[in-house]
């Protein structure tokens, strides 16, 4: 190969599944553009709390359990096992975390929450990997079983204890939170100036250094750790090969069953950690039904992220942000998001016209016009819509991102030991 061809090969953008892979500068440019758009919407609507320090800190706290569930789903599905039982494993994490937490302290509760989720993951692995039961059926069964088991155990563990009942645990001691002095106050003052873009960046950074739980830091570190383990180690390569082609992996000497068991058990442990976070950090107490479907939303975040840790984290952040909107000036903030969505659809119209997708462009333009009309003719949205915003966002994101997804080829495909011999 000549020198010019070699140089061209190095700088040419790579393609994944027939699509160009975005480079880091392009990703950063997209993020900067999104921030500028949000800032513009904030100035027009007057919803200054959209990117405040408190809003961002609240969004981060709400995003962590969703992200942990999504990370758990990523581990399982990269090994070829669909884990729709994440919700049930989170439920086990909340109960075991609270049960141990109020007796022996929050960090012991975190450990037991992980172990409770691991039990759910191990059960899912036995059912799907060893006995070959349909992955969806097994996951649904675990979700139902987890609710029943925790409800039964609560009658013995919490009922009759001061502060506890058959549906909730006694209060759990909190995990320490950290705030960077000086920097936190300076960023908060800068955010309160309500300047274009600068105040928004200050609000986002301020939310990351103000009242940050130590368990949140651990959860954030698990994202790059997962990327490094699965994409930069021989162990991760073997595990991912089980999700792409288990038969080929077996012919190369990989113990497919072992890697599937490890992946699904780790998946349950991460979901259990998300449940423990809800009980110990978010509320300080176990309550029946407190997961609120976050396991399913975590699965949606993983799919939105195209089975990659970074994309999954962005999806979890988006869902956490929309969930947090209702906590601080909910009706006003969600009303401002109508304007943001309408502008995004206008951008989508031009992109679809560029790609000559005229039907999609017409539909996007019509929906955008409806949203603009809704925004300018009202001052706020109904409270019922505010409560439904996270779930509506989940549906919209999945529908808009469905065309660019590329799941592991053997995800959910039955595999029996010896097929590669």
Distance between the termini: 39 Å
Assign a percent range to the helix content: over 70%
Count of DSSP E strands? 4
- Order the strands across the largest sheet as they lie in space: 1-2
Largest sheet: 2 strands, antiparallel
SSE topology string: HEEHHHHHEHHEHHHHHHHHH
Q: What proportion strand?
A: under 5%
Low-confidence stretches: 1-18
Question: In words, what does this structure look like?
Answer:
- The chain starts with a helix and ends in a 20-residue tail after the last helix.
- With 421 residues, it is an all-alpha fold.
- The chain has helices spanning 3-11, 24-45, 53-78, 86-104, 106-130, 135-157, 183-191, 198-208, 214-232, 234-244, 246-251, 256-282, 294-304, 309-324, 330-354, 358-377, 383-401, and strands at 15-16, 19-20, 177-178, 212-213.
- The strands form 2 sheets. It has a two-stranded antiparallel sheet.
List keywords for this structure.
421 residues, mainly alpha, two-stranded antiparallel ribbon, 4 strands, 2% strand, globular, disordered N terminus
Write the layout of secondary structure elements.
Layout (H helix, E strand, L loop, with lengths): L2 H9 L3 E2 L2 E2 L3 H22 L7 H26 L7 H19 L1 H25 L4 H23 L19 E2 L4 H9 L6 H11 L3 E2 H19 L1 H11 L1 H6 L4 H27 L11 H11 L4 H16 L5 H25 L3 H20 L5 H19 L20
Antiparallel strand pairs: 1-2, 3-4
Helix pairs in contact: 2-15, 3-8, 3-9, 3-12, 3-13, 3-14, 4-5, 4-6, 4-12, 4-13, 5-6, 5-12, 7-8, 9-10, 13-14, 13-17, 14-17, 15-16
């Amino acid at each position: 190969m000549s020198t010019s061809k070699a140089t061209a090969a190095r700088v040419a953008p790579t393609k994944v599944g027939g699509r160009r892979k975005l480079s880091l500068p392009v990703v950063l440019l997209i993020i900067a553009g999104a921030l500028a758009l949000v800032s513009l919407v904030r100035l027009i609507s007057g919803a200054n709390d959209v990117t405040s320090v408190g809003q961002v800190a609240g969004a981060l706290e709400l995003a962590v359990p969703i992200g942990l569930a999504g990370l758990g789903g990523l581990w399982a599905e990269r090994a070829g096992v669909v884990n729709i039982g994440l919700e049930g494993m989170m439920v086990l994490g909340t109960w075991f975390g609270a049960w141990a937490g109020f007796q022996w302290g929050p960090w012991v509760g975190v450990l037991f929450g992980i172990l409770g989720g691991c039990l759910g993951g191990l059960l899912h692995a036995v059912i799907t990997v060893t006995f070959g039961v349909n992955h969806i059926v097994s996951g649904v069964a675990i979700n139902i079983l987890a609710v029943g088991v925790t409800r039964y155990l609560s009658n013995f563990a919490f009922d009759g204890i001061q502060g506890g009942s058959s549906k909730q645990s006694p209060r759990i001691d909190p995990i320490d939170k950290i705030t960077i002095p000086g920097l936190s106050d300076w960023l908060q003052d800068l955010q309160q100036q309500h300047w274009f873009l600068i105040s928004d960046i200050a609000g986002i950074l301020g939310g990351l250094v103000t009242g940050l739980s130590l368990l949140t830091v651990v959860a954030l570190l698990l994202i790059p750790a997962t990327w490094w383990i699965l994409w930069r180690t021989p162990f991760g390569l073997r595990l991912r090969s089980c999700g792409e082609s288990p038969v080929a992996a077996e012919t190369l000497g990989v113990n497919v069953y072992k890697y599937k068991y490890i992946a699904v058990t780790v998946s349950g442990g991460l979901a259990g950690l998300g449940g423990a976070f809800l009980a110990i950090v978010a509320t300080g107490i176990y309550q029946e039904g407190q997961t609120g479907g976050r396991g399913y939303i975590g699965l949606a975040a993983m799919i939105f992220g195209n089975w990659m840790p970074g994309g999954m984290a962005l999806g979890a952040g988006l869902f956490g942000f929309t969930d947090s909107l209702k906590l601080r000036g909910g009706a006003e903030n969600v009303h401002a998001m109508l304007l943001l969505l309408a502008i995004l659809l206008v951008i989508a119209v031009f992109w679809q016209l560029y790609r000559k997708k005229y039907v999609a462009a017409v539909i996007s333009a019509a929906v955008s016009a409806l949203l603009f009309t809704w925004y300018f003719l009202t001052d706020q949205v109904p409270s019922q819509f505010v409560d439904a915003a996270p779930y509506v966002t989940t549906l919209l994101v999945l529908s808009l991102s469905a065309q660019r997804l590329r799941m592991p080829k053997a995800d959910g495909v039955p595999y029996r030991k010896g097929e590669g011999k």
